[in-house]
Amino acid sequence: MSKTDNNSSMSRKKTANTVWAYIVLIMISIIWLFPFAGLLLQSFRSYDPKVEYGGMVDYLIPKHFSLDNYRFLFSGQTNFLRWYGNTLVIAIFVSILQTMIILCVSYALSRMRFAGRELLMRFWLILGMFPGFLTMICLYFLLKQFGMTQAGAVPGLILISVASSGMGYYVCKGYFDTIPKALDEAARIDGASRARIFFTMIIPMSKPIIIYTALVAFMAPWCDYIFASYVAFGHDESYNVAVAMTRWVWTNDYQGYFTRFCAGGILIAIPVTVLFMALQNYYVEGVTGGAVKG
Fold it and tell me: Within this chain, do residues 31 and 91 fall inside the same structural domain, yes or no?
């Protein structure tokens, strides 16, 4: 076989592999996006109990598109805006406070050497392997003593999320380990304190890991259901959207509230989608940078 024929065969094989790869990726994308497409279409359905649905297509694609479900969310017939506000407040406070604590703890573990440092890091890693809901009963009674359940559930949920945030140091510490320690040593020789080094040198060079940490911290309370339902149990105005909307589909009017549930789900997904689309490059860089060293 000549060199030209060999190159042509390799080119055809490479093209075929590329085509198959695209076909597989397109199929996976369709499967992955199908539930989201269904959620979006159902959010525009105006439920009418008199209408009979003939099959799956009738259930999936509305015959008449309507904004009734979105109007319902903002009509005052429900506390959706209050629930949305509770979720947003919790997520923002947790994101800011948790990011600050993780950055400080990670910097201290990365740059400082003190007795018990290795033992502390190993202990936190082992402790982090246990699921958080094992402490639900203890946390509930502890928060109840301070009036941070039911009517005070919003500050209680913020406290729960922030209290143990230092244990999430691992990825951030790995990122700090990639920054040369020679920079710190040069600044120390010039008389800079550790705080000044941290705020004026390390933080400006750590934008990807800061954004990654803030996004992860924001997502946790935004999607929280277990702790939120437990702490705010029975107090409608303290619910977040996950708890409140789950209770919608528990009602006897399942068909009527399901489309409203879909509309609420679309509104909940918008902030997270926008954040990830705008900051995805920093997010990936923060993950990969923090995974270089332990």
Answer: no
